[in-house]
Amino acid sequence: MATEEESIEQAAASRRERLKALKAAQELLNAPDEDSSQAAENQTDDTNEENNPSMKFRNYVPHDKQLQEGKVAPPVLPKFEDPVAAAPPASEEKEDPFVNIAPKKPNWDLRRDVQKKLDKLERRTQKAIFKLMGKQIKLFLLHILADTYVGHIGNRATRTRKTVG
Question: Does 104 fall in a domain?
C-alpha cells in the first residue's frame, strides 16, 4: 500500500509541475513585449471604438448611405473538389464482397452433392409431364373424332331410312 500511495503522490507532483509550466508559458504569451506607452495608446483606441462602434451588415442592406459603407462583402467559398469523383474507378473486376461476408447455409454441401441427381430427376419429371399431356391430347382428339364420326354415321343412317322407308 505504501508503494501505491507513493506512486500516487509522485503522479500528483508531476502534474503540479506540468501545470506550473503551462501557467508560466501562458503568462509569457500574454505578457506585452511593447512599451507601456504603446499599451496606453491601445487602450485609448479601444475606448474610441467602444464610443463609435462600427456596424457590419452581412444579411441586411441599410437604407442610409453612411451605413451602406459598413456592409460586409459576402464570403468567398472555396470550390469543393470531390476526392471520390476525381479518382477514376478501378476497372478491375472484383468479386462480390457480400459473398465472403454472408454466411453460407448449413446445407450447401448437401445441395452440391445432390445437384446432379436433382437435375436428372427434373429431366425425368419434365418428360413424364410431356407424355401425360400428349396422352390427354390424343384422348381429347379421339373423343372429338368419335363424336364427329358418330354424328356423320347418324346422318347417313337417317338418310338411308328416309330413302328406304
Answer: no
3-state helix, strand, coil in the chain (%, to 5): 70, 0, 30
Please write the tens of the pLDDT for every residue from 66-110. Answer: 877 777 777 788 887 777 777 666 666 677 767 677 667 778 888
154 lies in a domain? yes
Split into its structural domains, the chain has a count of 2
- Residue 5 corresponds to which cell in the numbers above? 500511495
Q: Is the pTM of this model over 0.85?
A: no
Residue 66 lies in a domain: no
Domain that holds residue 162: 113-165
Virtual CA dihedral for 12, 13, 15, 16, nearest 10 degrees? 120
